[in-house]
Amino acid sequence: MGEELVTVLVLAVAAVLAYVAAAARVVKQYEQGVVLRFGRLRGEVKPPGFTMIVPFVDHLRKVNMQIVTMPVPAQEGITHDNVTVRVDAVVYFKVVDPVDAVIRVEDYRFAVAQIAQTSLRSIIGKSDLDDLLSNREKLNEGLELMIDNPAVEWGVTIDRVEIKDVSLPETMKRSMARQAEADRERRARLINADAEFQASKKLSDAAREMADTPSALQLRLLQTVMAVAAEKNSTLVLPIPVELLRFLERSAGEAESRPERTREVGRAEGERREEEPARLEEPARREELARQAAPPAPARAPAPPIPVRDDDAGTAGCL
To answer: 210-245 burial string, b = 16+ CB within 10 Å, else e?
Structure first.
């Protein structure tokens, strides 16, 4: 009888241990448990720690409450400005309602991955290439809103979305490189032109100062000679001022033009002397021609003798 009692006690203890082993569950700190009894949801959610369920009746689903990092595979699309690109991203999300994550969606991880890929393709088609390359913050915010709207019903909230890389075709890379090179070349030319303009203004001011003070040009020439001689060169180049060359050219031109002017003056004087007698003889010749062409004047009759009276004779004798 005693042996039978011991056997029963051992079997009872074994059954209790087996039941406890089948019913005992451990929920980790970053998890929460959702219990389904005969397929129906129980109202309470199992907190972290040790918990018990009814074996073969209850089913415990553990839901991870940590932030999940999910990479989005690279998606190929055409941007708004007709450029083919490949863009990949990463999504950070977490479960805020374990019941909705278990009941409302079959697999919330797969669902978030699919909505992330479709949203990424949509954001590529709506954006320009420049926005994908330089304005990623705005695109990240738009992509986060697009993923978060349907994910809220699944008990999931999107923490943030980041676009990792934008892959461009090789032809587009070369075109962008040429564009950047041309832009930098333009900026370099503008800077050089501005420097030349400023230098020309300074040189113009210096030229006016040297024109007012001729000795300054000689001093500048001596400074140039000293700078060249300091290099210990075997050949010394002595620059000649442009003003000196212009003075010599002007002097040579005056010397060449002086004989020409002298010959022209002599030729004009000779012509004037040759024309002077002709001008003096011209009036006499004209008078002679006019005299020859005029008709001869008629001869005048001789005056009759005047009779002399006596009283006239006496008067004449008195006179």
So the answer is: beeeeeebeeeeeeeeeeeeeeeeeeeeeeeeeeee
Q: Model pTM greater than 0.70?
A: no
Provide the 3-class DSSP secondary structure of residue 175: helix
Q: How far apart are CA 68 and CA 115, in angstroms?
A: 15
Question: Residue 52: phi, psi to the nearest 5?
Answer: -125, 145
Size of the chain in residues: 319
Task: Return all residues near 157 (Cβ < 8 A) that are at least 6 apart.
Answer: 93, 94, 96, 148, 151
Measured between alpha carbons, how far apart are the two ends of the chain, in Å?
A: 234
H or E segment at 255? helix 242-293
Give the number of other Cβ atoms within 10 Å of residue 295's Cβ: 5
**Range 205-227 average pLDDT:** 76
Q: How far apart, in whole angstroms, are the C-alpha atoms of residue 20 and residue 26?
A: 12
Report the candidate in 182, 5, 12, 161 with the shortest Cα–Cα distance to residue 92: 161
Closest C-alpha to 129, from 159, 87, 100: 87
Distances (CA, A) of 269 to 13, 58, 226, 282: 159, 143, 57, 20
Write out the two tokens for 53. Answer: 């369920």
And the tokens for 124?
């590529």
Buried b (16+ CB within 10 A) or exposed e, 306-319: eeeeeeeeeeeeee
Nearest to 69 by CA among 33, 109, 40: 109
Please, are residues 224 and 230 in contact by the beta-carbon 8 Å criterion? no
Considering 7-16, 31-40, 110-119, 222-231, the range whose residues carry the highest mean pLDDT is: 110-119
Using alpha carbons, list the distances in angstroms from residue 166 to 77, 89, 132, 161, 285.
11, 9, 7, 15, 113
